[in-house]
Each structure stands twice: as C-alpha cells, then as structure tokens.
Amino acid sequence: MAGGGLAVAAAGGVEFEAKITPIVIISCIMAATGGLMFGYDVGVSGGVTAMPEFLKKFFPVVYRKTEEGKLATFFASYTTRRLGRRLTMLIAGVFFIFGVIFNAAAQNLAMLIVGRILLGCGVGFANQAVPVFLSEIAPTRIRGGLNILFQLNVTIGILFANLVNYGTAKIEGGWGWRLSLGLAGIPALMLTVGALLVVDTPNSLIERGKLEEGKAVLRKIRGTDNVEPEYLELVEASRIAKEVKHPFRNLLLRKNRPPLIISIALQFFQQFTGINAIMFYAPVLFSTLGFGNDASLYSTVITGAVNVLSTIVSIYSVDKLGRRILLLEAGVQMFFAQVVIAIILGIKVTETSDNLSTGFAVLVVIMVCTFISAFAWSWGPLGWLIPSETFPLETRSAGQSITVCINLVFTFVIAQAFLSMLCHFKFGIFLFFSGWVLIMSIFVWFLVPETKNIPIEEMTERVWKKHWLWKRFMDDDDEYVHHDDLAKKNGFVGPL
After folding, report:
1. Which residues of 107-124 are buried (b: 16+ CB within 10 A; e: fewer)?
2. What membrane topology term does the record carry (predicted)?
C-alpha cells in the first residue's frame, strides 16, 4: 500500500486502498455547507418572526417550513438518483438563493410565501443529497467524521443565525429582519459554488452508466490506481440498482426493512430526546441568573458554543469509538441530566415560588450544557450519518428521502405540541423525555448494529447478515459474490 494510505478490509479478504486526499477533504467541506444553509434557516426563522416590524408588516403568520420541505424531499430523491448528488446540491443552492431574494425583498405576504416555499425546496434537496454525497465520497475509515461535517455546519448555522437576529433586532428603522433573511444567501452561495467545483461520487456516476468516469473519479479521490476491488463492488451494486424500477416500493421488501426501520426510529427518537425542551428553557435559566435583557444572548452563545464544540468531538471520535458507543454513552448522560433538572425544578419551582437560587440555577445550567453536549456528539449527527451509510445503492436515495421526511414530520409535531405539553407537564416534561431517552437507548443496545469501518457497499454482508435479529430478514439464497466472480460477471478479464 502506498505511504500515507488507508486500507480497509472487505469481505473475501480484499482491501480497499484509500488515501486521505485533499480533493476529498475539500469536496466534503464544500458539500457540508448545505448544513450551514439548513442551520441558518432554522435559526433565523424563529427570531425574524418575533421582530415587531416584521409582524407589523406581515401579521403573525406561523410558517410551517417542515411542510414546505417534505414534498421537495421526494422530488430530490429522483434527482439524486437520476441526475447525481452533485447536481442535486446545485439545485438546492439555486432554490435557496431565489428564496432568499424573495424573502429579503418581500413587499407582501405572497412574496414571503413564495420565498418560504423556495427555501423549503432548497432545504429538502440539500438534506437529501449532502449526507449521501459525504458518505459515498469519504474513505471508509473516516466516513463518519466527514459526514458529521454536515451536522457541524448545522450547529454553526444556528449559532450564527441567533447572533445575527440578536443584532438586527436592535436596528432602528424596521429593516433588520430583511438583513437577517438576506444573509441566508451566504451559505446558499457557498453551496452553489461548491457544487460547481466538486466531483460527483463514483457511486452516482457508475449508477448512471458512466463507468469510466466513475473509475477515474475513484482513482482521483482515493489517491491510488489500485481501485479495482472497490470499483467492482460499485459496479455490482449499480447492476442491482438498475434492476430496481420503483425504489420507494423496493424499500418495503423484507431485505430492506432493517435499514428502513432503523432510519425511521433514529429520526423519531432524535426529536424525542427533549432537545427542544432544553433549548426552550435555557434563556429562562440565564434570566434567573441575573443576566436580564442579555439573558437570551448569553443563552445563545453558551448553548450554541457547547453544541458546536461537542459536534467537533463527534467528528474525531465517531470513527474511533464507533456509532453505538456514542449513542449509548449519550443516552446515560442525557437521562441523568434531565432527571436532575426535573428534580430541581420540581422541588424549587412551586405554585408559590418560581425563583431558583443562584446555586441551583447554575447547577441546572450545567445540566443543560451536559445534555446539549451529549446530544451534539450523538443523536444530532448520527441521526443523519447512520441512514446515509446503511441503505444499499438501489434504495439509498429513496431511503434518505424517507429519513429527511420523517425528521421534518416529527420536528413539526414536537414544535406544535411542545408548549401545550410544557403547560400541562411543567417540570414533568423532562421526565417524559428522559423516559424516551431510556427507550431509545434500549433500542440502540439491541437493534442498532455497528457500522464503523464497514465499506458502504458491504453493509448487507457484514452488518445485516451478521446481526442476531436483522439477519432473519435477509434472503438465505442471496449468497455473497466475491470480487473474482464480480469481475467475470461484468466482463472484466485480468486487471482493470
């Protein structure tokens, strides 16, 4: 193996040789700006809709952006498969740029709605294509870390948006909301330019019949000429994918149920960790500590910084420790933090007293940061990573589409139900979510397999067929085809 390269053992004793090449790192960084776009959109929306001048102009309309993104997600599944990951990211950036223009220049409600629809389309296309692109282009040994660049950018985008909203809300003249919405064009432009500069993934090129181009790109991104074993795996995966005429219908086949069930469960559980309850309570706690009018700023900076830094921890640890250990450790940490918060609030916040002492308030803030850090290095990024790397090529785009859709649906459900739940449960809302954390941790322990260091096209053989439960869903007669057999089947004789 060439110096500085990485070798990943595949089934049949064959190794996939790969170096960590600059083109891969640069491509992943550029593609991951789709997360920055998504995060800024999430962070800026709530702040803008609370600005008095914005409300005065458009009246208090609740924008259900999750509804705007869901339909776009299904269209994005088609473009991701037929047109490629790179072009889908380009479409996402263009949609978002036009949405930003309509929103920042909005003179009436119609322009605002059109802008939100375009932004929803951009988010839907980006969330569909970017995680798949990152998982396919990255070398197996660092696939998790490079994929989590998407989530890192989401957290940075949210933090940046909250800080922008804090500043623009103080602008006199009533045009601050336009600046907040207009700055969303920066990450959108970064994604658009990035999509023009990066190469498409070998998986996508081969799937669309561009075999030689796919092989050339594979050599380029792996930094070696010895790509035959991985190339043959991709060719065989492409052959199987072409036999599938209806990817969404194919998702329901028995053999595809394990990754589908896990993807849906991860998105459901991600929203039921209680992250929304924690983030909602943070500004109240900082106000209790005496920060006054600046409580929301301190809350934003501290929780946002914890979010970003903990996501970086995940980037460095996910390919060393594995996916399961991060999810399980985070489950213990989040459960503990929420129970402590519930006990303190339950004892100290009563019908006759709603003030925490400084000492207890500090303890609750520490528990809030403890919870956020655990979420940021586990359920936040891994909810996107695991689905993007576990579906076979023939259902990967459709599977990612379902993943994004489920995430948006339950984000919407929690957002709509949260305030009502808080009013009824009070401090018990943290016990409610801690119960779900316990359930999801049990789910991970028994049903989520480890995918660390497994080549993306080897998941069926090396993950699903070896799991105590999911192997029952695999076809018994679907025998593994070794690389020599693949070569003969695809008409290759001798070295490629």
Report:
1. eeeebbbebbbbbbbbbb
2. Multi-pass membrane protein
